[in-house]
Amino acid sequence: MEFIPTKIPDVVLIKPKLFGDERGYFFESYQKRLFGDANISMDFVQDNQSGSKQGILRGLHYQIRQPQGKLMRVIAGEIFDAAVDLRRSSPTFGKWTGAILSSENKHQLWIPPGFAHGFYVLSEWAEVYYKATDYYAPQWERTLLWCDPTLNIEWPIHKGQSPSLSSKDADGKILSEIEVFE
């Protein structure tokens, strides 16, 4: 596996080594020792999967208590995945990074605890699978507004369309109004 720091070094793009022939392919999506060697030594306690239509934007979500680190990958389709640093003591506080994840490129994105996370579906349909380092705790879930102008996230929204949002995501708060991590 290749571990590539993004413009926020704690968020890491992971490119697996693919073994393939005319029959298909094989790759390791997670190996504790390799991740530990890349300074990603987390215990995963929950696996999640979601399916979404093109144009859906989910996020930017985080849990102010029981923060979750997430190892994201796409098993069908393509998404733009984004993370925003909400750790006030971090030199990249309030900055974002993102990557295209797809079933074709098989890339993964490691997003440590202390970040808000969201994704936008580029393909007609996408299935997202991710591992989390803590349990879902809806009472601690918060939403950072996906289009906060101070963040200026470069979402690759399909031309002439607005993203489809849940009411929770549409009602997210801007960075200056949310609870953040120390």
Describe the structure.
Helices cover 5% and strands 40% of the residues. It is mostly beta strands and 182 residues long. It has one domain: Jelly Rolls. The chain has a six-stranded antiparallel sheet with strand order 1-2-10-7-12-5, with no helix packed on it. It has a five-stranded antiparallel sheet with strand order 9-8-11-6-13, with no helix packed on it. A hairpin with a 2-residue loop joins strand 3 (19-21) and strand 4. The chain starts with a strand and ends in a 12-residue tail after the last helix.
The profile of the biggest β sheet is:
6 strands, antiparallel
What is the CA-CA span between the terminal residues? 32 Å
Tally of discrete structural domains: 1
User: Looking at the structure, what is the overall shape?
Assistant: globular
Q: How do the strands of the widest beta sheet line up side by side?
A: 1-2-10-7-12-5
Which structural category fits the helices and strands? mainly beta
Q: Kindly state the percentage of residues in helix.
A: under 10%
If you compute it from the alpha carbons, what radius of gyration comes out, rounded to the nearest whole angstrom?
16 Å
Q: pLDDT below 50 for ≥5 consecutive residues: which ranges? A: none
Mean pLDDT: 96
Strand segment tally: 13
Give the CATH class.
Mainly Beta
**Which percent range describes the beta-strand content?**
35-45%
What CATH calls the topology is: Jelly Rolls
In the CATH hierarchy, the architecture is Sandwich
| Secondary-structure element pattern, one letter each | EEEEHEEEEEEEEEH
Tally of helical segments: 2
CATH superfamily: Jelly Rolls
